[in-house]
Amino acid sequence: MLISTRYLPFYSPPNMGVVTVVLSFLLLWNCMCLFPVCGLSSDGKALMALKSKWAVPTFMEESWNASHSTPCSWVGVSCDETHVVVSLNVSGLGISGHLGPEIAYLRHLTSVDFSYNSFSGPIPPEFGNCSLLVDLDLSVNGFVGEIPQNLNSLGKLEYLSFFNNSLTGAVPESLFGIPNLEMLYLNSNKLSGSIPLNVGNATQIIALWLYDNALSGDIPSSIGNCSELEELYLNHNQFLGVLPESINNLENLIYLDASNNNLEGKIPLGSGYCKKLDTLVLSMNGFGGEIPPGLGNCTSLSQFAALNNRLSGSIPSSFGLLHKLLLLYLSENHLSGKIPPEIGQCNLSGELPVEITELKHLKNISLFNNRFSGVIPQRLGINSSLVHENGINGTIPLSLGNCTNLTSINLSMNRLSGLIPQELGNLNVLQALNLSHNDLGGPLPSQLSNCKNLFKFDVGFNSLNGSFPSSLRSLENLSVLILRENRFTGGIPSFLSELQYLSEIQLGGNFLGGTIPSSIGMLQNLIYSLNISHNRLTGSLPLELGKLIMLEWLDISHNNLSGTLSALDGLHSLVVVDVSYNLFNGPLPETLLLFLNSSPSSLQGNPDLCVKCPQTGGLTCIQNRNFRPCEHYSSNRRALGKIEIAWIAFASLLSFLVLVGVVCMFLWYKRTKQEDKITAQEGSSSLLNKVIEATENLKECYIVGKGAHGTVYKASLGPHNQYALKKLVFAGLKGGSMAMVTEIQTVGKIRHRNLVKLEDFWIRKEYGFILYRYMENGSLHDVLHERNPPPILKWDVRYKIAIGTAHGLTYLHYDCDPAIVHRDVKPENILLDSDMEPHISDFGIAKLLDQSSSLSPSVSVVGTIGYIAPENAFTTTKSKESDVYSFGVVLLELITRKRALDPSFMEETDIVGWVQSIWRNLEEVDKIVDPSLLEEFIDPNIMDQVVCVLLVALRCTQKEASKRPTMRDVVNQLTDANAPARGKNS
């Protein structure tokens, strides 16, 4: 609007310069008012206020920049067309801290997802001011306190998820006053009290998950008013009374789980109205009476579990109408009458019944870890693994040789006697034969040489005798040979050198006699163990033993071997050695000085051994009362005469003194300078020394793991100070370089919740130590494959390990400068803390160790067989894509609980080929997954999530590297896979 100044009273023309300044100021002020983009918007300021209470990853810190005009480009933030924040999704970003009241300033929010982080403190009641919210997800965090009472003000809320926190108090009545609420997940908290009586007001609710809390009291009958309800999970609480009859009104109900409570009375689902009911779980309660025949009208029922109740009577004949029924669990009740033949859920004991031999179509029988006794039925003709760890006696039936499709036999730890049947030679596809810890006698049948595919042969701890049949040389695929603690004679056969895949030889505790054949040094794959102790062996150690540079375990104790130990001087990979009670003499090789103070001594019983410490010293090369110094040993020799000494000295001076002196001085100077540099930066500290002392100078009893790069020891400096000490072995000439020290120092500065923190290190030319915090649950490999009995591993834990490992690798690939390629991703390098949170180890270290061994002719690839990407099968080159492939293999192991190279794989050589073959032909996930997960498939959302993760694994393991996703893509896909488990896709 323009106003003429001539109509203004008392107007006089001002100075024009002043007018210009004033107008400029007004124009600037007007601009600032009309265009607030000159500074961060109010939503952005609210977000910055929230972030001020959080610890966030680096990439998020960089993204949330206060200098921006709006937060719309920030990680996890979405805006509408007016640049107002409408969605906030920071799920799985590893954020910790409290959630502040500033959330109330984001009044236009429609979706909030803070799940899978480490938030703590109470849930702010200010969420009640975000009246436009449709989705609110705070699950899998550490929130405490009570659920806010004012959430009923969120009139548009459809999805509310607070599961897996530490929330206490009662379930607020106000939640069931939210008119549009469809999904409510409060499971896995510490909630108490009873279900509010007004639960029936939630007429739109589809999913109600209250399991795994401390809820009690009666289940309200008003729940029958929730006519849209499809999923009702009340299990693992303390509910009393009966299951209300009004449950029959829920015609849309698909899943009902009320197990592990204190419910009693009759099962009310007798009307047959629940036509859509798929899963009914009522186990671990006090239900009595008969099973209602009306359940036979629930024609969609696929799973019914009511074990450990007080049910009586017989199984209704109407169950014959349940054509979709897959699982029926009714054990531990008072049922009587005729049991249908389809039911086979028994806890067997006693003798194996002869009748099982009549099951001609039986392909797989697993009977181990029970209490069977008696003998194996002679007519048994089955097609899989047999029994072990029972009390079975008698002989091995000859008819076992008719089971020509057997791939594995395990009859260990029983009381079997007699001979090993020569008929076992008919098993052409047999891969593993374990008859150890029995009372078998006689010789080894030569017919076993027909088992061309045998890779593991274990008959240890029996009473077998005779010599080794020469025909066994045809077992060209044999990797593990265990014949220890028997009565074999005839010497160590030289044909063992022809079995080039041997990685472990256990011959100790026999009567072999003779000498050690030099040809044994040709076994370049002999990595894990060579045990020939207690065998009356004589002669000296062949120099060819020094070629076994990767050998980790050597036991030649309690023999009559003589000569020096110089053949062992190059075995730098040894972590366990025992040469005790022989007739060895001369100086100890430097590689054995580390074992000087082992207890019990692995060197004792050799009175003519002496100790000569190197000039550079060492951690364990100290004065030892059990061994005299080599100077004393050499002083007993005849002294040369003065004339002889003078003549030798004169000739040496004339011929070599100048040349040798110059060369030696040059080499000595170069080596000393290099070692001084390394020693100055090797990282040695009092903590490392204390840890080594705590392991009593690396005694064998402290070993908790072994791998390609070294051995891991556990050291305890107190109840809350436990460490893992890894001894590294450098197989080549590059170990201990200044470049290695520098790179380890760089790796030591990396910090991430899913990466193992390097505490300290100590580097020398031939070996070194790296110190980490000890992880209470060991490695993922231990949890999946090594523990007996295997621990229960629920899907949510497996998923947690998968997503955490993915986050760690993503950080290495994209948030480290320069980027780090792990090069050896495998379960052994994924450590699990007390909360089963994964921590990747050996990142950055694998590359250094592979470089250090690059001069070794036996090393041609990098990584571990089974985890190496196809493009890296014959090269040392590694890339991010190869890490993705290895991670995909780890995902498959998590899903299947099978090893990467599992003996159960027949035509397919590894887990990738096995899974791809089944999925390509059947697309049935239940044929692939660990059988222990099938119980969790009662929840279809979990099954959907497993399928999603399986598909991610198959993408990661595609043959062409260019088709694999990046680790960032993997994190996003795994996060998306979690949506079904939270119920969003219900």
UniProtKB/TrEMBL annotation:
Spans through the membrane: 645-669
GO CC terms: plasma membrane
Keywords, comma-separated and alphabetical: ATP-binding, Cell membrane, Glycoprotein, Kinase, Leucine-rich repeat, Membrane, Nucleotide-binding, Phosphoprotein, Receptor, Repeat, Serine/threonine-protein kinase, Signal, Transferase, Transmembrane, Transmembrane helix
Keyword rRNA processing: no
Its EC number(s): 2.7.11.1
The family this protein is said to belong to: Belongs to the protein kinase superfamily. Ser/Thr protein kinase family.
Protein known as: non-specific serine/threonine protein kinase
Gene name per UniProt: INRPK1_0
